[in-house]
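Hey Z.,

So I finally got round to the FE2/S2 (inorganic) cluster thing we talked about over coffee. Here's the setup:
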Amino acid sequence: RRRPRGKQWVQEYTLPVRREDTVLDCLLKIKRTVDPTLAFRYSCGHGMCGSDAVAINGTPTLLCTATVGDWAKPATPIPLADGEGFRRTGDAGDKRSADTTAPEGNSCEDNAGAQSHELGIIELAPLPGFPVQRDLIADIDPMLDQIRKLKPYLQADGVLATTSEGKVDVFEYLQRPEQLAKYELLSNCIACGVCEGACPVYAGGDAFIGPAALISTSRFVNDSRDTATDERLDAIDTADGVAACQSVRACSRHCPRGIDVGEEMWQIVARVRER
Ligand code: SF4
Ligand code: FES
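And the result:
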């Protein structure tokens, strides 16, 4: 991985939350009421834009669809030699306590009833495999550049449709439902980078074009209207393309759009090899 620049530390925030709150809700609450300097990225707030991918408890996923109830885990003390690299909001000099039952403890608390109890802790980090810009914001430009390089747009010969008077009406790109079904799911990719963050080969550096770019290629290769299949397969038939995929399939596990990324990768690799 690239060596991150600048100071790094872990910062603890304790706040009352409900199990059904999303992790994004928690961060917004922190930003509005505790620490306005905390930086994270989001846009739609409901799993459609892909801008808020981070690592939650080490697993790449979206902030806005992850709930406290699903991700809070029992608090365990972080071993710290000298307090460096760890900050508790409101008490910068205090070291983390192993007493997880303290009222001002180390966790999210459930305040739904009079008797609040600890829900546990949630650990957040920027999306792995990408340079960190600030706090939880990773720079995903390398992924977007790779997707752009593979021409993520339809290259097709349209059918000229004319009106009853013989005038040019519109170019139509005709397709049957079963042809649409071959790539429809792939077109739901929101370029969130979760698959890239989970991929151990991509996280190793720039040597692999990455699953998101290959999903983008696969989407057009499977589109019956696209006429650039050979060029697209040539573009990924490289040492940093399909040849670098090790079929670990970690990319499949958490795609928020339900794409079986590993299976799609396997199919596009087979397509390249069959030529
Ligand atoms: S394939 Fe899934 S995990 Fe990967 S970038 Fe697209 S939506 Fe995100
Ligand atoms: S904020 Fe848009 S996907 Fe989470």
